[in-house]
Amino acid sequence: YTGKSSTQLLSESIKKIKVNDFKSIPVVVNENVTVYDAIVTMFLEDVGTLFVVDNDNLLVGALSRKDCLRASIGKQDLNTVPVHIIMTRMPNITMCKGDDLLIHVAEKLIEKQIDAIPIVRERDNGYEVVGRITKSNITKAFVSLFNED
Ligand code: ADP
Q1: Is 7 part of any domain?
Q2: Nearest Cα to 90, choosing from 53, 110, 64, 60?
Q3: 130: CA distance to ligand 1 center in Å?
């Protein structure tokens, strides 16, 4: 018997969960695709956030559902405007690494009021997107704590 309270045990379990344990595959688009094509990609890939990359495949921005809605109710032509015009851009993108603690990433989602965070790997000139964490991943991790042996 360890003598630890259930709260201590729960907190220890939470601190063992890394981003890599619950990550999803990222959906990325090139910065030059049109807003129209980005919206189609969101539907086809069933994601709410797209990560935007340049021709070197390095992260340059993020595009959410509401970014697309905002553009759709404006006067812009969705078929000609590229996503880099309406996205949130670097250096204002909140990112994480695969070996970060999931609880810290969950705190970032709340603090920044966003739904998704790209998991990145550092490159010479920027960041390569290797995964994504969304509120769904956090929910799955939360449920997994209940299902623990
Ligand atoms: P929605 O806008 O559909 O509610 P979010 O809450 O995720 O979705 O996005 C809110 C705003 O934050 C959007 O303008 C979006 O471009 C931006 N955003 C989304 N993900 C990130 C991120 N990882 N880092 C910085 N900004 C982001």
Answers
A1: no
A2: 60
A3: 18
- Under a CB-based contact definition with an 8 Å cutoff, are residues 40 and 33 in contact? no
Ligand 1 atom nearest to CA at 48: 3
- Can you list the residues of the chain whose pLDDT is less than 50? none
Show the domain range for 29.
17-147
**Each residue's pLDDT tens digit, 49-60:** 999 999 999 999
> In angstroms, rounded to a whole number, what is the distance separating the alpha carbons of residues 133 and 99?
12
Does the beta carbon of 100 lie inside 6 Å of ligand 1?
Answer: no
Residue 1 lies in a domain: no
Count of domains observed in the chain: 1
pTM of the full structure: 0.94
The pLDDT, as a whole number, for residue 148 is: 72
